[in-house]
Design goal:
By secondary structure, the chain is of the alpha/beta class. The protein folds into three domains: 212 residues, TPP-binding domain (Rossmann fold), CATH 3.40.50.1220; 63 residues; 147 residues, Response regulator (Rossmann fold, 3-Layer(aba) Sandwich). The protein has 19 helices and eleven strands. Strands 3-2-1-4-5-6 form a six-stranded parallel sheet, with helices on both faces. Strands 8-7-9-10-11 form a five-stranded parallel sheet, with helices on both faces. The protein starts with 10 loop residues before the first helix and ends with a helix. The model has no long low-confidence stretch (mean pLDDT 87).
Length: 446
């Protein structure tokens, strides 16, 4: 195979993730390194059932015939699963669980999951029912959280604060460990989910039509998924010049097939060469690049690289949660190859901040973050001014130039914001998410 033209991660995908408009769709290939393939699982269950007396031997013979080829077709696997369910009933799910209960993530698989969870996707959907990805089952509440998220941008705390969940994970085909009866295993299960639960298909149609999808570990042999993709393309009247509506990391996609997927399926394939390899390291390489470009700590670190920031606050202990994220990002930026370190100086008073800026002239800080504060100095009339107002006035009087963001409580926010902006502040915010959004705007030149 010649050099693959589709081997690079497009900037459009990175921008879609950063804007909170991308959903990851995780298939069986994602965990194939540690979880047996569907054919192997079905063969294992067949062997277990054969050892149990009275388990419809004629059906098991048919299953063995369907699985006799080294690489059964998707249709043959679907038929074999349904026959096994006919033979074993509820025990089928129990037998599948027994087959995968001993699965343990390798260090590389743990890292893969870590990379996935560190990317600020709007949501992560998976058809896998193993325990490598913890998540919730399909429900009206889960659909609402994905379709109408309150926090889905990189600066929201769910993506950077320790102990927060990151992107919501929905296990579309159930979870064997939690609710074996919820798992979609055979043809009838698929039909019930697709055609007897209208909310399920309504959810997927809405999501595919309104967000960018990144497919991870899919071979696109699922007839139901392919039909849904076609339906959405017809709904949108897809024109290739408008760009893809989805992306997929997939191995060994030729340029000809890549062109076809882009032109007719609306999918931009991000490919890698896996010939002669068994570890699919190219997949991890692409996922690692996407993580590096979009992870909140990495993204903020690039913005902070080489910057000098003054943080004016008489009570800095109130800022520990967000400050830890800021300092971690700055430290990460300093450790990057050829990156300039970031300096964040914590200052307790307006007078000290003005003195530091005066010493820097004619240079200036790249950003000043200040509390609003109520223990400021007095003006010429003897009136006590808030810290931020005093700072902005002194900067004006002494010709000190630097963008200033006021980070304050929500008390009297409308009134105080108007005063701060009138004196030249770049922004007035009352929570960490808005602060990080403003930092991105200021340091990126927005």
């Amino acid at each position: 195979m010649a050099a693959l033209r589709y081997a690079e991660v497009p900037q459009g995908l990175v921008e879609s993730i950063q804007s909170g408009q991308c959903v990851a769709f995780v298939g069986a290939g994602f965990s194939a390194e540690v979880v047996p393939g569907w054919a192997a699982l079905l063969r294992g269950v067949t062997g277990r059932l054969k050892a149990e007396p009275g388990t419809a031997p004629d059906l098991l013979v048919r299953v063995e015939q369907l699985l006799s080829k080294a690489d059964p077709t998707a249709r043959e696997l679907e038929a074999a699963a349904q026959l096994l369910m006919d033979a074993a009933g509820n025990r089928f799910a129990e037998q599948i669980h027994a087959e995968i209960s001993s699965v343990r993530a390798t260090p590389r698989m743990k890292r893969r999951v870590e990379l996935l969870r560190g990317i600020p996707f709007r949501a992560i959907l998976t058809t896998n029912f193993d325990n490598l990805l913890e998540g919730e089952l399909p429900s009206h509440q889960a659909y609402d959280r994905v379709l109408r998220p309150h926090e889905h941008r990189w600066w929201h705390s769910r993506f950077w604060d320790e102990g927060h969940p990151g992107a919501a994970v929905v296990k579309l085909h159930g979870d064997l460990g939690r609710e074996p009866g919820s798992v979609v295993l055979a043809t009838r299960d698929y039909r019930r989910r697709l055609y007897s639960e209208p909310a399920y298909m309504g959810f997927l149609r809405s999501l595919f039509a309104t967000t960018t999808v990144l497919y991870l570990g899919f071979s696109f042999t699922d007839a139901y998924l392919n039909e849904l993709i076609s339906e959405v393309l017809a709904l949108l009247g897809h024109v290739p010049d408008r760009g893809p509506i989805a992306y997929a990391i997939a191995n060994d996609v030729s340029d000809a097939m890549g062109d076809y997927l882009t032109q007719h399926e609306g999918i931009h394939a991000i490919t890698y060469d896996s010939r002669g390899k068994t570890d699919f390291s190219g997949f991890d390489s692409h996922l690692g690049f996407i993580h590096e470009q979009t992870n909140p700590t990495r993204h903020l670190g690039r913005l902070l690289a080489g910057k000098r920031i003054l943080w004016v606050d008489a009570a800095p202990d109130n800022n520990t949660a967000g400050m830890r994220f800021l300092l971690d990002a700055a430290q990460g930026a300093a450790q990057a190859p050829s990156a300039a370190p970031c300096s964040i100086e914590q200052i307790r008073s307006c007078a000290e901040a003005v003195a530091v800026m005066a010493e820097l002239k004619p240079a200036s800080p790249d950003l000043v973050i200040t509390q609003w504060g109520h223990q400021g100095a007095c003006d010429d009339s003897g009136s006590e001014l808030p810290v931020a107002e005093r700072l902005l006035l002194d900067m004006r009087h002494q010709d000190l130039f630097a963008p200033v963001i006021v980070f304050a409580s929500g008390a009297h926010a409308d009134q105080n914001r108007q005063r701060a902006l009138a004196l030249g502040a770049q922004g007035y915010v009352s929570n960490w998410a808005d602060l990080f959004r403003q930092i991105e705007r200021v340091l990126s030149g927005g």
